[in-house]
């Protein structure tokens, strides 16, 4: 009888022979024949169940490695012209591998969005893990660009509006669509990319005056490919929808549920109510109702509305408009919980004890009628002693019981210790013309936190119910920080004289201790920003990996189905699990949950980038009249080409180009996050307080360019340049003790590694 290899021996073989990973290959390698193959099959099954191997058709591979031949999607070239690609077959844990494409002279030109089949080689370079060589291109999407059309003798050019300063595009005379010089246009690639010269494009839409206020969000919508027009069949389907009646539902119309939203809210999809629990077994406890618009009653699986909602993934919000996931007939009418109007809902009744711990809960499909549509400020004012004619009648019977329940939930929150970042949110206020009137930071009231805690509790209840009923669903996943990001945060904390304990299982309470230690100091903003940067990005998944930031084991999005497709999936899962009707989760959806999760995670990121870019453009427009003014801020990022500064007054981010720092060469240290002058030793690092002058503001790109005047209250020398021989440069004094200590620690660490 041939000895059966150990699990580690099998893993070592697969790692060393990535192209010979079928069960037959493994058996042949270890000389296993006959009945012994049964034991081999058992071991492979165990390795698969333990997550060490992934079965792909008739072969096995390490899930934390890419297959040797893989499908990739090409990304846009970086600043150096290198092409990287996203691996579409990555299913491992941790950070997605970075793949660099190594072109050959015979390869066709590749562009952003191309899908290719490539042969991969694993490497251990600083900026990538794999190198890819093209086998064949298997699909391409015409690349699109939004930019300013500059008319020429034989057509013209398109100057992209990206901050990165992408290459210009040539437009032939017959492909300009009648665009005028200086007009904002959207174009797509025309024909294959040339190896020499500028790429060619055809204009597909004229977007008008780029300086018009309404163009700001329009640029982001087109640049990021956000669908903003509903097809005719979708509108027609929405227009045919009728209000849902009481049949088959629990009557909740006598419960004084109310909505609490921003004063400019465009929809109302959640309502709440609370009262003291009259159960003597739960002294000091509360009953909380959260009712959510029953969007699933109107958006049926496979319908035109459903296909369009899934395509969009979520609503996208801009200062001047919203691009909704659903047409206004639903989002602003039938699915919006308007005051005094019967509306279909899915509600959850939750009981909590005096310390805010959930005792039990139950879901119902009901019909509700909102007692009032209030906004945060007026609710908080009523609790603080100045009710108005809307909140006054509700103060004792509805509002105070809500705050009493919230007080209990705060106790549970303090015990759970979710991540407690203090990062004020910017609010851009526009005038009637769509121009920026002011930039402020949103006020955080207890009314905001109350609704937030109620919604979190309802989301937990939804996840727990579906887990208990063994129903497929989409979880909201937030994994713990990657080790290298955590180490970077630890170094930043040490440079500020603070400590983040090492050698223990990281919990949010450890990060909160760091944030609390920094609170009230000049490093508070730096530590909050650095902690945020260390976090992994949340995403949707049919598998439950928990929510690190909220310190919750089970979490799903349930409370916003008007604006998030993930919540609609959870609603359908609840409908199926409770047997409430035929509009629940379908077998096709269950089979495609992984695909849906990936898609809506991508659309969420797309919306975030579009919203951020729009904010940047509004801020640039707002600051364009203050070019030449001085501002205070803090270094928020370091790159090879310069330093980013976040301005105190507006929260805007601007760039100090490295070329503006003088004639000496600056060494970029990505690990330490510094730029250091070769001659003077001037060190620029994240977190330093600075004074800058605004030298350029470009609203169409959102770019701000700054001149560095002082660092940590030490002035920069006028004119730049090298220090005089034999004399210490004044710029050298700018390097603070904090940054010197950081450099010393880095040198010592590298010495120990050698």
From TrEMBL:
Reactions the enzyme catalyzes: Exonucleolytic cleavage in the 3'- to 5'-direction to yield nucleoside 5'-phosphates
InterPro entries linked: CSD2, NA-bd_OB-fold, RNase_II/R, RNase_II/R_CS, RNase_II/RNase_R, RNase_R, RNR_Ribonuclease, S1_domain
Record region (Disordered): 711-754
CDD domains listed in its UniProt record: S1_RNase_R (cd04471)
UniProtKB keywords: Cytoplasm, Exonuclease, Hydrolase, Nuclease, RNA-binding
SMART domains: RNB, S1
SUPFAM superfamilies: Nucleic acid-binding proteins (SSF50249)
Domain S1 motif stretches: 628-709
Any single biological process term in GO: mRNA catabolic process
GO cellular component: cytosol
Predominant subcellular localization, coarse grouping: cytoplasm
Primary enzyme class: hydrolase
Entries under Gene3D superfamilies matching the protein: Nucleic acid-binding proteins
UniProt biased composition (Basic residues): 724-754
GO molecular function, one term: exoribonuclease II activity
Compartments reported by the entry: Cytoplasm
EC number per UniProt: 3.1.13.1
Superkingdom: Bacteria
PANTHER family for the chain: DIS3-LIKE EXONUCLEASE 2 (PTHR23355:SF9), RIBONUCLEASE (PTHR23355)
Family affiliation: Belongs to the RNR ribonuclease family. RNase R subfamily.
Known function: 3'-5' exoribonuclease that releases 5'-nucleoside monophosphates and is involved in maturation of structured RNAs.
Protein's name in the database: Ribonuclease R
Origin species: Ruegeria intermedia
Gene, per the UniProt record: rnr
């Amino acid at each position: 009888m041939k000895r059966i290899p150990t699990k580690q021996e099998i893993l070592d073989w697969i790692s060393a022979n990535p192209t010979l990973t079928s069960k037959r290959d493994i058996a042949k390698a270890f000389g296993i024949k006959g009945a012994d193959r049964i034991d081999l099959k058992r071991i492979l099954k165990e390795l698969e169940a333990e997550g060490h191997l992934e079965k792909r058709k008739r072969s096995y591979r390490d899930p934390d490695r890419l297959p040797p031949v893989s499908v990739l999607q090409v990304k846009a070239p970086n600043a150096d012209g290198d092409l990287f690609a996203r691996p579409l077959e990555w299913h491992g844990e941790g950070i997605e591998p970075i793949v660099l494409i190594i072109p050959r002279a015979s390869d066709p030109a590749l562009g952003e969005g191309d899908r290719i089949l490539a042969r991969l080689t694993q490497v251990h370079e600083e900026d990538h893990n794999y190198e890819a060589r093209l086998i064949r291109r298997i699909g391409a999407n015409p690349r699109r660009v939004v930019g300013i059309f500059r008319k020429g003798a034989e057509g013209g050019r398109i100057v992209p509006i990206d901050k990165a300063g992408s290459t210009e595009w040539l437009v032939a005379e017959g492909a300009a669509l009648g665009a005028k010089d200086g007009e904002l246009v959207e174009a797509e690639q025309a024909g294959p990319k040339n190896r020499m010269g500028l790429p060619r494009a055809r204009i597909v839409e004229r977007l008008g005056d780029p300086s018009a206020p309404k163009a700001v969000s329009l640029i982001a919508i087109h640049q990021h490919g956000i669908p903003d027009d509903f097809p005719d069949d979708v509108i027609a389907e929405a227009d045919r929808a009728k209000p849902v009646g009481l049949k088959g539902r629990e009557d909740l119309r006598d419960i004084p549920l109310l909505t609490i939203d921003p004063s400019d809210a465009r929809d109302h999809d959640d309502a709440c109510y609370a009262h003291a629990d009259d159960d003597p077994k739960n002294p000091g406890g509360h009953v909380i109702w959260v009712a959510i618009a029953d969007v699933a009653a109107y958006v049926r699986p496979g319908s035109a509305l459903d296909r369009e909602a899934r395509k969009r993934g979520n609503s996208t919000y801009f200062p001047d408009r919203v691009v909704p996931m659903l047409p206004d007939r639903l989002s602003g009418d039938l699915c919006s919980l308007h005051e005094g109007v019967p509306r279909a809902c899915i509600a959850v009744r939750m009981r909590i004890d005096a310390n805010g711990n959930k005792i039990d809960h139950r879901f119902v499909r009901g019909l509700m009628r909102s007692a009032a549509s209030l906004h945060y400020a007026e609710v908080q004012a009523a609790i603080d002693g100045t009710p108005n004619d809307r909140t006054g009648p509700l103060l004792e019977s509805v509002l105070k019981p809500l705050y009493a329940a919230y007080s209990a939930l705060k106790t549970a929150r303090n015990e759970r210790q979710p991540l407690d970042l203090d990062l004020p949110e910017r609010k851009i206020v526009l005038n009637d013309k769509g121009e920026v009137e002011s930039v402020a930071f949103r006020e955080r009231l207890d009314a905001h936190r109350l609704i937030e805690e109620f919604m979190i509790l309802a989301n937990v209840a939804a996840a727990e119910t579906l887990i208990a009923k063994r129903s497929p669903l989409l979880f909201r996943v937030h994994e713990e920080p990657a080790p290298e990001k955590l180490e970077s945060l630890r170094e930043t904390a040490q440079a500020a004289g603070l400590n983040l304990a090492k050698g223990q299982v990281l919990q949010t309470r450890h990060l909160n201790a760091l944030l609390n230690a920094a609170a009230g100091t000049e490093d508070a903003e730096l530590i909050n920003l650095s902690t945020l940067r260390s976090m992994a990005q949340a995403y949707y998944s049919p598998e439950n990996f928990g929510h690190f930031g909220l310190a919750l084991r089970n979490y799903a999005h349930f409370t916003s189905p008007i604006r998030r497709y993930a919540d609609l999936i959870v609603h359908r899962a609840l409908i199926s699990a409770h047997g409430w009707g035929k509009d629940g989760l379908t077998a096709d959806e269950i089979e495609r949950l992984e695909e849906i999760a990936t898609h809506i995670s991508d659309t969420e990121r797309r919306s975030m980038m579009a919203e951020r870019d729009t904010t940047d453009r509004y801020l640039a427009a707002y600051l364009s009249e203050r070019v030449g003014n001085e501002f205070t801020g803090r270094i928020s990022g370091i790159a090879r080409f310069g330093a980013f500064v976040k301005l105190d007054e507006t929260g805007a981010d601007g760039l100090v180009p490295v070329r503006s720092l003088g004639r000496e060469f600056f060494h970029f240290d990505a690990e330490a996050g510094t730029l250091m002058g070769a001659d003077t030793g001037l060190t620029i690092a994240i977190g330093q307080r600075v004074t800058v002058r605004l030298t350029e503001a470009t609203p169409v790109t959102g770019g701000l360019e700054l001149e560095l005047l002082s660092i940590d209250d030490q002035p920069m020398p006028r004119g730049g340049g090298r220090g005089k021989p034999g004399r210490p440069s004044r710029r050298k004094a700018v390097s603070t003790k904090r940054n010197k200590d950081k450099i010393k620690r880095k040198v010592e660490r590298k010495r120990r590694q050698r």
